[in-house]
Amino acid sequence: MRPGNLEGLIATDQESAPKTDKDLPFARQVLADVMDPEVPAVSVVDLGIVRDIGWQDGHIRVLITPTYSGCPATEAIEEAIRDALIAAGFVQAEVIQRLDPAWTTDWITDEGREKLRAYGISPPSGSASKRSLTSEPPVVLCPICNSDHTERVSEFGSTACKALYRCCDCLEPFDYFKCI
Ligand SMILES: [Zn+2]
């Protein structure tokens, strides 16, 4: 998996040189290309589930908060993160889950929301923290024609994290990334 020439170089560095923070932006770059297994349009960084990247005991350690606890994708995400870092030349990578505070859709970056829309998924509407104060249904915009004239077809879309909607104007069905 790992290129042999890189392996030698970085292994030496891991043994002798002190760890510096300059490798951390590179690690973040690597993670920006690790796509969410359920929504391949957005990366784990776009979703805001990468909480911290740091060094511990000579290896890189990534702190993640899964989007939904019990989401079957979580294990796949951990593995994808580890594999990507090791493929990028890090000798060892550890992924730690932190469930508190719980992830909310508010952590999805603006870039992530844009990518969701471009992929045909309506991003979460409004703020999760404000949403809990009201029981009003969210205004869900059609990702295709941007109409707010939409209706919910099913509470669950292609995955439990999404609901299935339909646009009443262009009549296209689409997934809405639920606000939590
Ligand atoms: Zn539409």
From TrEMBL:
Signal peptide boundaries: none
InterPro entries (alphabetical): Fe-S_Maturation_MIP18, FSCA_dom_sf, MIP18-like, PaaD-like, Zn_ribbon_PaaD
Domain MIP18 family-like stretches: 28-87
Superkingdom to which the source organism belongs: Bacteria
Record-annotated PaaD zinc beta ribbon domain positions: 128-178
Protein name stated in the entry: Phenylacetate-CoA oxygenase subunit PaaJ
Organism the protein comes from: Marinomonas algarum
Gene from which the chain derives: paaJ
